[in-house]
Batch of 2 targets.
Target 1
Amino acid sequence: MESATIVLTLFASMLGAAIGSFLNVVGWRVPRGESIFSPSSRCTSCGKAIEWFDNIPVISWVILKGKCRSCGAGFSFRYALVELVTALLFAGAMLRNGPDLLFVRDAVFISLLVCAVLTDLDHWIILDTVSIGGTIAGIAFSLVPGGIGLLTSTLTAASAFTLFLIIRIVSTIILKKKAISTTAPEGHEEEEDEFQGGMGWGDIKLAAMIGAFLGPTSTIVALFSAFVAGAVFGVIVLARGRDRSVPVPFGPFMALGAVLALFAGPVIWGLYWQTGKRSK
Ligand SMILES: [Zn+2]
């Protein structure tokens, strides 16, 4: 590997770690209605401000062994993991594109996906800034040299949105039928509209965002992978005896599929059709 490539990849991973750190803050504060920029990072246990030298992505977590310097309260390993994963994905995007606008596009896409995962895991929401704003960003990035093009981007976003909308409508009808046959418990009638363990509006808008960035082939790979991953997870969870009525957010599976498709979409697509031909 050329030394310039190594330096650029290192730079990309440091940028990714820093943005992962910022996304941790966004994922914690925005759903709680707090400002992203002030106050500075604080320990959620003792409230003491975290000094900059204790706030270096991944490294500080390792040095402090995941504990607050003042009160010793544990910081979830998840914070460091988010920083690490974002760093690795940014490095991958740099290796894939080199230092051009396509790297910026992939970096923005990755950041949006990480943000969607964090808020969906904790709060069951995907911010409109991420899904709708992300769709607009994806369409804008389709215009950069080497991008997928305005028409492709817009049409894929619209198709993915429509597909997920149809899935929602169909599954709502099926679940409603089930609900009637089991009769909802007293006082829970108002929850009927809240979709349990299925496609929420956040997921539908996220599908549009993924479509806008990836274009048709990779979007099919992404969404298909999401359903496969979700199904596998469901089987494992059921086998381990988890309560079936506890819903699992679907956004993280979509993000997983999207990342897979971003880096290997055309390869997976090619493999699928090759295997298909061979089995005939
Ligand atoms: Zn503390």
Note: Residues 187-197 have pLDDT under 50 and may be disordered.
Target 2
Amino acid sequence: MPSFQQQLKTVERWQRFPARERGDAPGRAVLTFDDGPDPDVTPALLDALEAEGVRATFFLLGEQMMRVPSLAGEIRRRGHEVALHGYEHVEHDQLWPGQTRDDLARGLGTLQASTGISPRWYRPPYGLLSEASFKACSDLGFEPVYWSAWGCDWETVSAERIAELVERDLAEGEIVLLHDSARYAPREDATPTVEAIPSIAARARERGIALVTLSEAVGER
Ligand SMILES: [Zn+2]
């Protein structure tokens, strides 16, 4: 789990820079996957989601897209929503305003080149917006997004633990933070996140909750 200091910083930032934390469509919740696309994990995740009939929203990084240019388009073709997590995985409160703006614009350009679309959503790395990233977000036409639940899957935890944490909070309106890459996390392998999908999907069905994309969980623009 993040340190107490980190959690305090996050709470303070979320109050200062408000962004979407929950969906509002009845009977729906959202699984979101940050830090990909990752050739080691994302293809297996797409198969797991398809097997369960789950659609999700992927917050992609420009530098990850550059490694495997076809994967972002593949995510979209498989029925999911693509969104932006930035070009690099940076802390915007540690950057100059111009660097922040460049990161978002470069990430957007990469995403447009890979998928042909301009995404609706932006989620800042670590959930930390700054004055500059909040403004760049609105200048570039993004709506910022945080989350309301998580699987703690940046840590080295089992698939069972990820599923347990997500299922504890899985209810209408939840936006669940998960990761389909271990590249920016303490853990070395993101496979447990993929392995947690069948259990999470089964629990959602039991509770009558449809797992859909973020845009589907908040209605159209
Ligand atoms: Zn991230």
Note: The mean pLDDT is 95.
